[in-house]
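Changelog note: in this version the structure field was regenerated for every chain. One regenerated record is shown below for reference.
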Amino acid sequence: MRSRPSVAGLLHPEDEVEKTPTGISGLDVISYGGLPSSRLTLVSGTAGAGKTIFACQFLAEGIRLGIPGVFVTFEESVEDIRRNTSGLGFPIQQWEQEGRWAFVDGAPSDVERPVESGPFDLEGLISRISHAADRVGAKRVSIDSLGALFNHFVSADTIRQEVYRLATALKAIGVTAVLTAERDLDYGPVSKWGVEEFVSDNVVILRNALTGEHRRRSIEILKMRGAMHHTGQYPYTVVPQQGIVMIPSAAMELTSHGSGHRITTGSDQLDRMLHGGLYDDSIVLLSGATGTGKTLMATHFVAGGLERGERSLLLAYEEGREQLFRNAVGWGFDLEQYEASGDLLVVNDYPESASLENHLLHVRRVVSEFQPNRVAVDSLSALERGSTDASFREFVIALTSFLKQERAAAMFTSTTASLMGGASVTDAHISTLTDAIILLRYVELAGQMRRGLTVLKMRGSMHDKDIREFTINGEGIHLGSAFHGVSGILAGNPRQITSDEVTRIETLFDD
């Protein structure tokens, strides 16, 4: 009988190739442990993709692990590298004084002029690297970049031969090396000269692609000879005092633990529709047109926890703090008092103030520090503006995975594009990622605009299927009876049906 594959083996395959951890957040996840040891890795990217930062961070993280390194520069001066990386938290000059970081400076000076005196090769460079590695006991080498030297070579065959010679020499020295290279397009030939990727053992591509009016950085491992790795592109950002930080959402494991404990939504009537409330690790999507009461429902959710001594975090991307507090008072909730006591934290940010990756890192940092029991995000639709479908979905996957790991219940609001019925793009992207979906809809009947609420799904629990009318007053939301004798509400085309038709439909369901 054929044995079933091991799930752990699929997620964490054991390579026969020894790996050197890069220390770059996320990269060691998608590479199953780092870069293959004692081999050459080509890091190729367009201008602004972060090649030099990658090369510096590879050495810096090694030094933090007690592993000295050598940095070979052909583009920027040594002083420029020291200065440009100081904001990333790399004290390079201190490491030089301690004998843990060595430079090999091949950057041309302003007065240097090339002099041709015969065939050019990399023998001298290899000797300098070997000497520097011996001097500090280096096990890591970064070369940024060889492209400036390739102009000395007369053919692609010569370039291939010299890169192969360099890779062989570095392997003989016993170092794990990173070599950066330029490319002209984010989606095109891997390298400018078209030979480096074939000689290198491993290839990592950095992109800084322009989509609409926004640029998005991503990392892709194109190949690792003899070693397993995740495929596809993964977003990353550059953070002060940290450097490159990746968000490998697609590589995350489903390790969250289910809970049978129920918590209130903040509305006793809605809790009854949910047959006892939400599970305490639920991710809830609250979808509706503008003005249907999404922010109010999120306020109910936050206040329901605060009244029971739970810490709550409100992430507001559409309304300011004072406006939120003012509106909450009008509904009978004194959020300002809870914030003063330290049980509530309100974070206001403009969606356009940062990339989705930076917003995610900010949320993760705030949640880790504040440790809330509940998190309300109002709204995801605001964060969706200006992002690509892929980047937004990755953001939501990473956010929901993180909140589940933190055992925090969450409510996300999203706005439908249509005033009457319909679905938002947000709903289509994240509806399968959430544990419960609550729909808020306008219902036009007899010349009046009324509101309706229904629970579309709730994982692991029964719930009422009715579409109930709700009203808003000075005490918040109040649920009423179901819209009997009305159909087409969710489709945005409500119409009244006769009592005979209602009886006929009920008979069909009873059967």
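Spot check on this record: The chain is about 35% helix and 25% strand. The first strand starts at residue 19 and ends at 20.
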